[in-house]
Design brief:
Keywords: Carbohydrate metabolism, Hydrolase. Belongs to the glucosamine/galactosamine-6-phosphate isomerase family. NagB subfamily. InterPro entries: Glc/Gal-6P_isomerase (IPR006148), Glucosamine6P_isomerase (IPR004547), Glucosamine6P_isomerase_CS (IPR018321), NagB/RpiA_transferase-like (IPR037171). The protein is of the alpha/beta class and 242 residues long. It has a single domain, classed as Rossmann fold (3-Layer(aba) Sandwich), CATH 3.40.50. 31% of the residues lie in helices and 17% in strands. The chain is built from seven helices and ten strands. α1 packs across α2. The longest helix has 18 residues. It starts with a strand and ends in an 8-residue tail after the last strand. The site of fructose -6-phosphate has 13 residues, from loops.
Amino acid sequence: MRVIEVNDYYELSQKAAEMIIDQVRKKPDSVLGLATGETVLETYAAIVNDYQQNQTSYRHIRTFNLDEYIGLAADHPNSYHYYMNEHLFRFIDIPMSQTYIPNGLADDIPEECIRYEKLIGQCGGIDLQILGIGRNGHIGFNEPGTSFDSTTHVVELAHSTRKANSRFFSSLEEVPTHAITMGIATIMKSRQIILLASGERKAHIMSQLLEGEVTPNIPASILKTHPNVTIIADKEALSLIG
Ligand code: F6R
């Protein structure tokens, strides 16, 4: 695992965007794995800015998002479909038909998980996966205790995750209880992975991740066994490293 320490969130976002744009330029038909959440927001803004300045093209790119809430329609402001459209897709030239996000309204959710997992394989697998990290070490919505062998599946969200995400909803009760997420094995099949961590609220988990062992109690710890992982973290996120 390579760790790039940057000064702050701005630098983190610039660096992450630069690595994604590099990948897109080197392989214009790349398959990208994308995350939602607060950390990646400015990375997407930097990609949009580059698109406007330099016309980097996403016409042949395909994207797979890590996860989606069950029960929220694509046009619900808190769905990850909505998030991706509002923060990235509608500002670049990627055809919407090449952007894949699990369907949280599918009639048959277990079947949707199988379909999504297969689709990633049919597209040749993910070249570059972007990850954030939960304060409990989750990646995607793979909460502590999730099997390292898991593929795309349904999860019941941990109370702490629902609480953390309730800042985007009007109340905790409105946060869905379940989601579809790529599994840990799905994420680990990606050829390259970038994990982003910013701010003091990620400091504790980053010290556990970087100084602890590989354990299902910290799902992100499995990344230590992957041959091509880069962590981009700012000083605050790394402030508890001894
Ligand atoms: C979102 C996702 C989550 C987030 C994580 C960090 O698609 O997969 O694992 O990356 O919860 O979220 P933020 O960036 O909001 O701290």
